[in-house]
Amino acid sequence: MNVIDVDDVSKSYGDVQALDGLSLSVEQGATLGVFGTNGAGKTTLFKLLVGLNKPDAGSVSVAGADPTDGTTVRERVRYLPEHAGFPPSLTGREILSFHARMRSVPREDRAHHVERILHTVGLADAADRRVGGYSNGMNRRLGLGTALIGEPAVLILDEPTAGLDPDGIRAFHEVVESLAAETDVTIVFSSHALGEIQRLCSEAVIIADGQVATAGPVEELRRAAADEVTVSLSLASEAVASDVAGMLRDHEGASSVSRAGVDLTVTATPTDAYDLLTAVGEGYDIDRFEVREPGLEAAFHEAVGAEGGGDPGSDRTAAAAAVDTATEDSGGEPA
């Protein structure tokens, strides 16, 4: 069952076409990664999903209703912006309790509900500390906790790890992975890091110039975008590595071979990579090897790179990026 349906939606601001016939469907329980260059239309799409904007054409349905129905949005859909501030003098527990009251969690269930969410977002040990002493990562997870109050059907996370240090990113990732594995909430996750989407999301959509450039299961997109893998090898010595590099360059299955000291990097199809490793292993001792399949970067470049979609230097992208920034700052309409 689809929990999000965006059907042939267009949205413009003056002469700028932010979305141009975009269609998208998301099943209940999926974790969808949304990626696009600046000005691609991501922010405009998110504003439509939470009911802060209306499309000029087409239709949007989230959790079975028009997002502009404010009651439905508040009850079923939650949006976590990149930056969410909290009164520094309050504790994490007090902030979550306040949100529980605002979202009409029954009084008799409130303490248990808040405690469960504190554990979910990894803040149980810091629940009674003032949030003014929280790290950026802890504040971001507290924001996620407020969004989870009342068990929403859809959770929209807009660049949630931007600006966090590696420990903060890791902790946030662990919470998202736990939610995806243990709940039926649909998560829409926007990120500028394709590796982050590849790790966390079951589905991905790449937006360029206000349209869906490509969409589908992450693994399918990744594998369909490139038919070669990268093999890294470490040999016993530079002399051995030089001999092996020469052998591999003569092998018709190797698309490219490069050497740096004792390390070799080879690209080949998956079948040829197996043959190459077998050939090397029969004549030489391999200290270490790694086979890396293509990532979502290949899918992105295949979808938009050849046509120049999402080129930061294009007039359309620069204008749309300005519109998206204005929309973020003004709460739904360009400045």
TrEMBL record:
<dbReference type="InterPro" id="IPR003593">
    <property type="entry name" value="AAA+_ATPase"/>
</dbReference>
<keyword id="KW-0067">ATP-binding</keyword>
<protein>
    <submittedName>
        <fullName>ABC transporter ATP-binding protein</fullName>
    </submittedName>
</protein>
<feature type="compositionally biased region" description="Acidic residues">
    <location>
        <begin position="326"/>
        <end position="335"/>
    </location>
</feature>
<dbReference type="GO" id="GO:0016887">
    <property type="term" value="F:ATP hydrolysis activity"/>
</dbReference>
<feature type="region of interest" description="Disordered">
    <location>
        <begin position="306"/>
        <end position="335"/>
    </location>
</feature>
<dbReference type="Pfam" id="PF00005">
    <property type="entry name" value="ABC_tran"/>
</dbReference>
<keyword id="KW-0547">Nucleotide-binding</keyword>
<keyword id="KW-0813">Transport</keyword>
<dbReference type="GO" id="GO:0005524">
    <property type="term" value="F:ATP binding"/>
</dbReference>
<dbReference type="InterPro" id="IPR003439">
    <property type="entry name" value="ABC_transporter-like_ATP-bd"/>
</dbReference>
<feature type="domain" description="ABC transporter">
    <location>
        <begin position="4"/>
        <end position="234"/>
    </location>
</feature>
<dbReference type="InterPro" id="IPR027417">
    <property type="entry name" value="P-loop_NTPase"/>
</dbReference>
<comment type="similarity">
    <text>Belongs to the ABC transporter superfamily.</text>
</comment>
